[in-house]
């Protein structure tokens, strides 16, 4: 399935991420007039071994309902894996989810399409948040062809996989059946992370999307930012670590970039009010051999998210903060 030209003109999120990673380690040109001396063979070999790997694949992890304040409160001791990605990569805890709704399915659809939600704003039209099959596809909801990161990867002759704890995300497989090569739906985060890790090791996929749902479930049961919710986030951090270790230790996964984000935040019993900052504010972390360690982006006092930045939490080329009149 080929994506339409409007979708292609939109900067698809993971494509932008890979471009950003590649740009992070551009080398400075030699000083004018400097002579290029050939290094000794041993030095040249060591330099080649230490050179940044080109990005060959992307592992995107969405922790459903992850309020970035949970990471701050847990700290490096309570969430060591995510903080490792933060410390060694590029991050912001001030990213924005979609402006129209702060629900799981609409925002995950925005993640993979780069579109707004509202159909009348050239959005994808997915406004429901359950596993209904009518409309059956994103295209039916939008009333037109809609491309995604899955179709972009497929058009490039590469493979994608989707791992999710929620049946509702099967919408992606129905919408882009030629683009999603593997779909696994398991209700338990632990089992899902294991399945995703095994697939990463066994298959040379360009894009793997992993959705972990436990934090959202705990937030609805016990309250977002409650002790039980924080315990769940800490447990999910261990699963992120399981995936990250596979990427670091398996030679065939060299050149993998990891993108970690969320579909919405939340505090108390709900995340439904899209006007509340605590609901639309999410973390965005990019880690890879080409990222600049420890780089962060924050909003200065008095600044608010741009409409474009809030539209897609997976477009790092968009600034998350702006004044009322001009972007930063």
From TrEMBL:
Pfam families: Phosphodiest. Keywords: Signal. InterPro entries: Alkaline_phosphatase_core_sf, Phosphodiest/P_Trfase, TAT_signal. Residues 294-328 are annotated as: Disordered. Residues 1-22 form the signal peptide. The keyword RNA-binding does not apply. PROSITE patterns: PROKAR_LIPOPROTEIN (PS51257), TAT (PS51318). The keyword Signal applies. SUPFAM superfamilies: Alkaline phosphatase-like (SSF53649). Residues 297-315 have a biased composition (Low complexity). This is Type I phosphodiesterase / nucleotide pyrophosphatase.
């Amino acid at each position: 399935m080929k994506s339409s030209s409007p979708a292609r003109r939109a900067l698809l999120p993971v494509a932008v991420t890979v471009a950003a990673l590649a740009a992070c380690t551009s080398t400075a040109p030699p000083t004018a007039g400097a002579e290029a001396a050939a290094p000794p063979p041993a030095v040249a070999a060591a330099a080649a071994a230490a050179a940044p790997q080109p990005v060959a694949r992307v592992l995107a992890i969405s922790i459903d309902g992850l309020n970035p304040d949970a990471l701050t409160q847990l700290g490096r001791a309570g969430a060591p894996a995510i903080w490792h990605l933060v410390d060694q990569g590029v991050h912001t805890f001030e990213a924005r989810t979609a402006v129209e709704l702060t629900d799981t399915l609409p925002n995950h659809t925005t993640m993979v399409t780069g579109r707004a939600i509202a159909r009348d704003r050239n959005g994808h039209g997915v406004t429901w948040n359950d596993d209904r099959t009518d409309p059956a596809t994103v295209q039916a909801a939008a009333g037109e062809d809609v491309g995604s990161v899955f179709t972009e990867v497929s058009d490039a002759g590469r493979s994608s996989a989707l791992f999710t704890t929620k049946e509702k995300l099967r919408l992606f497989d129905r919408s882009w059946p030629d683009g999603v090569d593997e779909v696994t739906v398991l209700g338990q985060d632990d089992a899902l992370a294991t399945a995703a890790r095994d697939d990463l090791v066994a298959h040379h996929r360009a894009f793997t999307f992993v959705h972990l749902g436990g934090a959202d479930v705990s937030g609805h049961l016990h309250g977002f930012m409650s002790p039980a919710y924080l315990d769940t986030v800490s447990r999910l951090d261990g699963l992120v670590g399981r995936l990250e270790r596979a990427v670091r230790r398996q030679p065939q996964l060299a050149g993998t970039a990891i993108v970690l984000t969320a579909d919405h935040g939340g505090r108390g019993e709900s995340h439904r009010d899209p006007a509340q900052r605590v609901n639309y504010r999410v973390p965005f972390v990019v880690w890879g051999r080409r990222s600049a360690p420890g780089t962060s982006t924050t909003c200065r006092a008095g600044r608010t998210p741009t409409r474009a930045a809030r539209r897609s939490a997976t477009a790092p080329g968009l600034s998350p903060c702006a004044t009322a009149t001009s972007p930063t």
